[in-house]
Amino acid sequence: MAADPESSLGDAVRRGRDELRDAGEEFAGIVADIREIARGEVELAKAEMGEQASLLARTAAWGGVAAVLGMLALTWVFVTMTLVLAEFVPAWAAGAITLGVLAVFTLGAALAARSRLKRLTVVPKRTVHSVREDVQWAKDQLKSRRTTSAGATH
User: Fold this and answer.
1) Predicted TM-score of the model (pTM)
2) Fewer CB atoms inside 10 A, N or C side of the chain?
3) What is the residue extent of each domain of the chain?
4) Contacts by 118-127 with C-beta closer than 8 Å and gap 24+?
5) What string of pLDDT tens digits covers the 154 residues of the chain?
């Protein structure tokens, strides 16, 4: 018995419509996943920036305390050093020697502060890495869907 050409065409149209609907639903699912991932990345970025801001605040507070106490202590150390040196050399030379030692200590402190400042970042590195992975995942999903759709139609 010969197949009804009209029935075969109708079946093909229904199958095509079903495949198109399935593809649309799958694409909508991927888009929803991408939106959810993007929301998560924004939250991660906020958390990471909050951590960095907190680290900066704690570092600044301890740096301020150390600076004040250090200045007080060094003042007395250098006054004492100047007075002791003044017993052996003229007062102006004792002052100059003390100033030179103070300059060396200041340079050391500045270099230590600089090295700590280099560790501070304003770019949320973990988030950037995660976003790159998410973009690659989305590309892979879309490519996979295209390949699957192309294979299903042939």
Assistant:
1) 0.39
2) N
3) 41-122, 124-154
4) 120/52, 120/55, 120/56, 120/59, 121/52, 122/49, 122/52, 124/44, 124/45, 124/48, 124/49, 124/52, 126/44, 126/48, 127/41, 127/44, 127/45, 127/48
5) 455 666 788 888 888 888 888 888 888 888 888 899 889 888 888 888 888 888 999 999 999 999 999 889 979 989 999 999 999 999 999 999 999 998 998 999 999 999 988 888 777 778 888 888 888 888 888 887 777 666 655 5
